[in-house]
Amino acid sequence: MDGKPISASRVVISQVMGPTEANIHGNVHGGIIMKLVDEAGGVAALRHSRRPLVTVAIDSLSFLHPVRIGNLLTLHAEVTYVGRTSIETAVRVEAEDGLSGQVTHVASAFVVYVALDAAGSPAPVPALVAETDEDRRRMEEARARREARLDAARARGEL
Fold it and tell me: Residue 67: helix, strand or coil by DSSP?
């Protein structure tokens, strides 16, 4: 199976936040943002694997600033690590005020997926190819996160 470059997985998704996504104070629900993070990461993983996927982990999603009704929410996602059947994606979330044009980083997360075959079993995915020094650095950081996830799962008796 040939490898694929990180650039082939990159995706940008934008959506205007309306009243149905917000609470009575005009702030967008965290669950709405989390769903969009999962979708953006999933599209990046799909572009890489071209297989059905399931979400297995979302690492450390912290909300840094509120997202308000009327903001344009933009999610940038790309694959950062590939195991035999698993794919980690990095997702950055930004909110843009449509009137002022001010863009605010509101959240970041790493989302892990497992690719599936036709029977619903884990399936191999293409290797990830770094094109730049920045790609290589991010892949090394992702490898360390994967090891930390596996160590934590072992400590919990899950592996």
Answer: coil
